[in-house]
């Protein structure tokens, strides 16, 4: 873990990721207990939604801070990085 304080976006992302982990653990338990499939699917969708929000928050924070600085230092590298992130997000 980083010694410096987490940014607001990363802190929010961490909380959401932990919530997604808890939801995923619930999905696993529900499968093990042979619960009704639509209920499991609903919980799985919840975990996916949380993780999508984590990605959005991290990307917003990156664009607001890191990407701006990187663009000034290495424009071509920053563009390649952003395209990679974009491709991973779709």
Describe this entry's structure for a reader.
The two termini are 28 Å apart. It contains four helices and no strands. The protein has helices at residues 8-32, 37-64, 66-73, 75-89. The model has no long low-confidence stretch (mean pLDDT 89). It is mainly alpha-helical and 90 residues long. It has one domain: Metal-sensitive repressor, helix protomer (Methane Monooxygenase Hydroxylase, Chain G, domain 1, Up-down Bundle). Helix content is 84%, strand content 0%.
Task: Write the CATH architecture name.
Answer: Up-down Bundle
* Strand segment count: 0
Give me the CATH superfamily: Metal-sensitive repressor, helix protomer
Q: Tell me the span between the first and last alpha carbons.
A: 28 Å
Low-confidence stretches: none
The succession of helices and strands, N to C, reads HHHH
Regarding quaternary structure, how should these chains be classified? single chain
CATH topology: Methane Monooxygenase Hydroxylase, Chain G, domain 1
What is the total number of structural domains? Answer: 1
Task: Name the average pLDDT.
Answer: 89
Total helical segments: 4
Q: How much strand?
A: under 5%
Assigned CATH class? Mainly Alpha
Rg, nearest Å: 17 Å
The major β-sheet equals:
none
The shape, in one word, is elongated
Q: What's the helical proportion of residues?
A: over 70%
The chain-level structural class is mainly alpha
